[in-house]
Amino acid sequence: MLDELLAATGAGRRRLRVAGACGLLASLSAVALLGLSGWFLTAAGLAGLAGVAAVQAFNYLIPSAAIRLLAILRTVGRYGERLLGHQAALEGMADLRTRLFSRRAAIDTRKDARDPRAATAILLDDIAALEDIVIRRPAVVAGIAGGVVSVALVALAGWGAALFQAVALLFLPMAIRKMAERFTAKPSADVADRLIAMRATFTDFVAARSEIAAYGFTPLVMKQLEPTFHGYEAAKARLLRGEAITAAALVLYTAVVVAGVLLLADGAVPLLAAALLASAAGTEAVAGFSRNAMRKSGIEKSLERLATLSQASDTVHVFASGSPVAEPIGVGDRAIEPGERVAITGISGSGKTRLLEALAGLRSPDRLLTLNGVPVESVDADHLRRQFALMPQDPMLLMGSIADNLRIAAPALDESAMFKALAVACLDERIAAAPQGLNTWLEPDGGILSGGERKRLALARALLAGRPWLLLDEPTEGLDSETEIKVVTNLARWLDQTGTGLILVSHRPFPLTMAGRELSL
Amino acid sequence: MKRFLAHLFLLFDTVGAAVFALALALAVSAIARGGETVMWVLWAALLLVASGLFRAMALGTSDITATGRASFVVADLRERLLPHLLAGRVVMPLAPGSAASVAIDHVEALRMRAIRFDPVRIAAVAGPVLVLGLTACASLVAAAILLFTFVFFVLTMIVTGSAAARESDAQLAALNTLSGLLEDRLRHLPIIRHFGAEERITRQIGISSHSLSDRTVAVLRKAFLSSAALEFFAALAVALVAVYCGFSLLGLLPFPDPEHLTLGEAFFALALAPEFYLPMRRLAAAYHEKQLGEAADRVIEPLLAEADLPDVATAPFAGIDVRGLEVRFGERVIGPVDFGLGQSGILVLSGPTGSGKSTILATIAGQIAPSAGQVTVQGSGLPPDPRTIAWAAQRPLILPGTLAENIAIARPDASADTVRQVADRVGLGAVIARRGIDLALDASGAGLSGGERRRIGIARAVVSERPLILFDEPTADLDRVAAEEIVALLAQLATTRALVIATHDPRLMSLGDNVVRL
Q: CB A496: neighbour CB atoms within 10 A?
């Protein structure tokens, strides 16, 4: 599944292979360094004991040079592994992020997840988990290489020992998987579930913050939170204990493998020395990547979700903006003809906002609503958005510059077009006066713009879309009456000039003067 | 003491490593000597296993001790932090999602730092010292070699390390920016789709992801130098010890040998050499936990400091004066707000969604510290006592219990008659007739409608008998009949109590004796 996900992105795979090769070099050098050092030292010791002739016959130049070379190779290899591994992961993930976003964006809003906020949080968590796995990926090749070279070095000290080392290393990943199943799999799933529960419970309580503070409900709420938090603590403690046990068992395993090699080896002493040190280093290398595999088993659910989304056939395509012909709207049995300006009235809760959002393709309607005689719920989302431009009640501005926000409305907008739309919304002078003009940055909460100014920016955005119908939800809420009059006058003139139809919802009376008639829900 | 213990256990791991090296040295030198070696080999194998057992226990105990200690730290932290997030007086209230992220994610970051980073910190100093001492027992020169590589390692770290740490912090910040951007765009998908901008936004995400990945790689190129230095000196230490010992055993050193090494001593020094840098490698591996922990500290510490502020002196409500009240969230300023309100009557706060009506209400209730101006009880100069202010929420909190208990929750000693009367008065009579006043409720509200839930909040405020009631959007999303009932009820309540109502409902605005626009 991981491979499919990465294959989908294409990029970075060659680099990942190079990173793997670097890791292989590093791991190989690390094991060989210890093995060769052990052999060299022991052989030198034996030669020293054997007398001057043996010392003179002993070739120390090659091994001592090789030892220094291995030390350097190990360093360079590890550096390359880490750098290229991160590079491949970052680039691959950049592609994957884009791909996943594109798949998610292609879903019809009306058919999207019931709780898009939670869906977003889960997607971001999944991506982070995957990134972690990708970064650690070259370590797998490195681990296997370390294991293989250790078996080769142990083989110098006898076949029995080598066979033992090989079996022990082959068995290790399985042993780690078994330990994970026994000690960490369930707590790990528990922790993930309880984390979600804990977050949901706590978020609900914080949403009632004012009431809790006013009436001093804190002790009651803390008592309510206790079981959730306690359950999480218990699961987390089990998980950490499981991980500690697994880590400890690996250390013991290494010692036992080395002891086994010692007992089974029958080669010459220098080769035995090499075998012992190589055995220890090789087992640690394999344990390192097996632990990684263990981590991967914990995120299978994440990978599954990502793979499903990544393989979805829907993908976004370039939005062909043209100028579609306005189509008539039906509200129940009442018709609104193209180019008409209608105010929707009714008390709060009667579904005025719902009506606008249904036309905009954001929600399903709660009454009979037709476009060109077809119920809007069966009208294609793409068709709907070619007809309507919405200024929503909550402005829904993106984190980014003012220009970024306006550019959503249509491709290839130039500054003069933007300022023209801003002028209708009486926001042109304010933005021209800002030190960074159209590049002024908006934080998620709107930054320097006030509530009324944010609404007007959303109005300018809707105007720029150039659709045959404009949907306005409380366009002048939060404006002083002087600005309100200006904005409404500008809008009326703009509607005259463009011949755009208007569906308006407003508590305030003055904007209603733009409408030719009222339609009461 | 416990903290010290955790570090001590980790030090035992180094002791175990020394036993492991000793066993190897014994075996190799015994076999090299020749003769009857079986017993030696058996003993050495046994010692190897014993050393493994010892190390496993040391590591396991260290982990478990650290875990236990961390859970105490977490419990203590939650005890101080949660009440503040739930009800403390703050300068800037966090959105529920952010508050949960502080209470859960940041606290978890501190836990993981306490488990992964804190224990290895002292071991990273004590471990190498121990290895150095043990190596010195076998070979002074080998110990000197370790020390020599260490001096260069420290010098390299001084040059690359601090730069790498800075770069690493920058990388973390950059990654956060990218995931912030992705989150923002995912959250706004409905409006992006509405304007047909998916393809352009997708392209934008692609471009920023790639430019971020390029910048990050440039950063990592330097950041990984410090870990490469660690790797290099660790490898160099092993290589130099091996070469020195080999040449010393051969008697071919180019300088007078200060010691006479045996094969056993030499092998011990070599087998122990990799352990010299191991604690520091563990420290480097835990660097990420340290970074996340520091990021969490930066968020949590100001909150704890805020939680520890002493309570302000207050006076019971007897009419209030609000003068120049202003709340500042970064660059955003809400207010200034000025009004006076006596012991009865209605003041309406109006303004569009997001203009800060609820924030001003919470500031009047003493839950938010204003950046300027004040709220004072008429004739006292002190802020109003929160216990004399009731809050009727837009979506009231329902705690597990009966309907009656939920109504009387702010005043548990209220008589059943009072509760019943108030419930009728706020229009809960129909629900009670249908499902009974002992209807069991849970947090989700047991199928009550939004309007019924809202009325529980109002009933709660009325039963509390507090003289000032703050209403947050009491008629939002209600049908006409329900809204008009609420309006009538508020008009009636205002004859005996002071009401501050945040709303943009014109019917409520006409009810107000005074309307303050935001």
A: 10
Provide, as residue numbers in chain B, all residues whose Cβ is less than 8 Å from the Cβ of A105. 189, 192-193, 198, 201-202
Q: Would you call A106 an interface residue with chain B, using a CB distance cutoff of 8 Å? A: yes
Give the burial class of A227: count Cβ atoms within 10 A of its Cβ; 0-12 exposed, 13-18 middle, 19 or more buried: exposed
* Domain limits, CATH 1.20.1560.10, in chain A: 2-310
Q: Which fold has domain B320-517?
A: Rossmann fold (3.40.50)
Kind and range of the H or E run holding B63: helix B38-87
B325 to chain A, closest Cα gap in Å: 17
B415 in reach of chain A (CB within 8 A) = no
Tell me which architecture the domain covering A329-520 has in CATH: 3-Layer(aba) Sandwich (3.40)
Q: What is the CATH number of domain A2-310?
A: 1.20.1560.10
Global pTM reads 0.80
Which single residue is written with the structure tokens 């109502």? Answer: B501
Give the CA distances from residue A429 to residues A139, A413, A424, A451, B481, in Å, rounded to whole numbers and listed in that order. 58, 19, 11, 17, 44
ipTM: 0.86
Which residue is associated with the tokens 């410090």? B226
Please provide the size of chain A in residues.
Answer: 521
**Structure confidence by residue, pLDDT tens digits, B6-43:** 667 888 999 999 999 999 999 999 988 887 788 889 99
pLDDT in tens, A409-429: 988 889 999 999 999 999 998
Query: Helices B287-307 and B38-87, interaxial angle, to 10°?
Result: 30
Residue B106 burial (CB count, 10 A):
21
| Burial class for B301, CB neighbours closer than 10 Å (0-12, 13-18, 19+) | exposed
